[in-house]
C-alpha cells in the first residue's frame, strides 16, 4: 500500500465552499483522497466541468431532502468499489455514509447525525451510532484495513471541547455519546489525532457567533479513526486551521508504507 494523504472536511455546503475556493485548496494540497460532509446538494446542481477539471474522481451520496446533509468522496484514482449508504433506509435517505474501497483499503466517509434539535433526533443519533458500529464490526473480519473519517458530531473527552463543564449533557457531549465513543475505539479503532497529539487542545468546529473561532472556543467533532491493522502506518495527523471555507476545519492524515 503506497503513501497516502487523506483529508476529511465538513464543508457546510458545497456550493458556498466552491465559491470560497475549496477546489483550489484540494489541488494545492495534492491530496490523494478528500472526504467532504454536509454537501447540502445534489451533484447535478454543481458545475461538473469544474469538478472534473481538478483531476479527481468524485462520488456522491446526497440526502433525499434538498439542501440537507450529504457526503462526497474525491480521489485521484478510481475506487475499486463504491457503496452508498449502509443498506438501512432510515439512515440512507439522509445521505450520511459513502464507502470507497481502494484495493485492500476501505474508507468510510461519514456525517453522523446531530441530536441537538430534540429528544427524537437524539434517539435517532444513538440508534445510528449502534447500527453503524455493528456494520463496521462485521466488516472488520473481512476487511481489516479501514479508516472511518468525517464529522462524528461528538466531542469525545473534556480536552475536545471548550468549557466542558458548561457543555456537559448537551448533544455532542452527552455521557452516552462519549461512552459510545469509548466502545467504538475498543472495537478496533484508534483516534489518529489523539494518538499523535495526546495533550493538544485543538478544535475542528466553532459556532459562527461571538467570535468563537477567533477566540478558539470550539469543539473537536471531526475525526480520522484508523483500524488497529493500520495504526503502524500513521505518519502524521493535523488540523488545517488556515482553511476557512466552513465553520469546520479539515483533518489531514498521512499514511506511510
From TrEMBL:
Site for Transition state stabilizer, residues: 153
Organism field: Mariniblastus fucicola
EC number: 3.1.11.2
Record's protein name: Exodeoxyribonuclease
Cofactor names: Mg(2+); Mn(2+)
Residues in Endonuclease/exonuclease/phosphatase domain copies: 7-248
Keywords, ordered alphabetically: Hydrolase, Magnesium, Manganese, Metal-binding
Pfam families the UniProt entry points to: Exo_endo_phos
Sites annotated Interaction with DNA substrate: 248
Active site: 111, 151 (proton donor/acceptor), 248 (proton acceptor)
Listed PANTHER family: AP ENDONUCLEASE, DNA-(APURINIC OR APYRIMIDINIC SITE) ENDONUCLEASE
Family: Belongs to the DNA repair enzymes AP/ExoA family.
GO biological process: base-excision repair
GO MF terms, alphabetically ordered: DNA binding; DNA-(apurinic or apyrimidinic site) endonuclease activity; double-stranded DNA 3'-5' DNA exonuclease activity; metal ion binding; phosphoric diester hydrolase activity
Annotated Mg(2+) binding sites: 10, 38, 151, 153, 247-248
CC cofactor note: Probably binds two magnesium or manganese ions per subunit.
Positions of the record's site feature: Important for catalytic activity: 222
Gene name for this UniProt entry: exoA_1
Top class in the EC scheme: hydrolase
Amino acid at each position: 500500500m503506497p503513501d497516502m494523504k487523506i483529508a476529511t472536511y465538513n464543508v457546510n455546503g458545497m456550493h458556498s465552499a466552491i465559491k470560497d475556493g475549496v477546489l483550489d485548496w484540494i489541488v494545492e494540497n495534492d491530496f490523494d483522497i478528500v472526504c467532504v460532509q454536509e454537501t447540502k446538494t445534489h451533484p447535478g446542481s454543481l458545475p461538473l466541468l469544474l469538478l472534473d477539471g481538478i483531476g479527481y474522481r468524485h462520488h456522491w451520496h446526497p440526502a433525499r431532502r434538498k439542501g440537507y446533509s450529504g457526503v462526497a468522496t474525491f480521489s485521484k484514482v478510481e475506487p475499486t468499489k463504491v457503496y452508498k449508504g449502509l443498506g438501512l433506509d432510515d439512515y440512507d435517505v439522509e445521505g450520511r455514509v459513502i464507502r470507497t474501497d481502494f484495493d485492500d483499503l476501505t474508507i468510510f466517509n461519514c456525517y453522523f447525525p446531530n441530536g441537538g434539535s430534540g429528544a427524537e433526533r437524539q434517539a435517532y443519533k444513538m440508534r445510528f451510532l449502534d447500527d453503524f458500529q455493528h456494520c463496521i464490526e462485521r466488516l472488520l473480519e473481512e476487511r481489516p484495513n479501514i479508516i472511518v473519517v468525517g464529522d462524528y458530531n461528538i466531542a469525545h473527552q473534556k480536552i475536545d471541547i471548550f468549557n466542558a463543564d458548561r457543555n456537559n449533557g448537551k448533544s455532542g457531549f452527552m455521557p452516552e455519546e462519549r461512552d459510545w465513543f469509548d466502545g467504538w475505539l475498543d472495537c478496533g479503532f484508534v483516534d489518529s489525532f489523539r494518538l499523535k497529539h495526546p495533550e493538544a487542545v485543538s478544535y475542528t468546529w466553532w459556532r459562527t457567533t461571538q467570535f468563537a473561532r477567533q477566540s478558539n472556543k470550539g469543539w473537536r467533532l471531526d475525526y480520522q479513526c484508523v483500524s488497529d491493522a493500520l495504526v503502524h502506518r500513521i505518519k502524521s495527523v493535523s488540523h488545517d486551521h488556515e482553511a476557512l471555507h466552513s465553520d469546520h476545519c479539515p483533518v489531514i492524515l498521512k499514511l506511510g508504507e
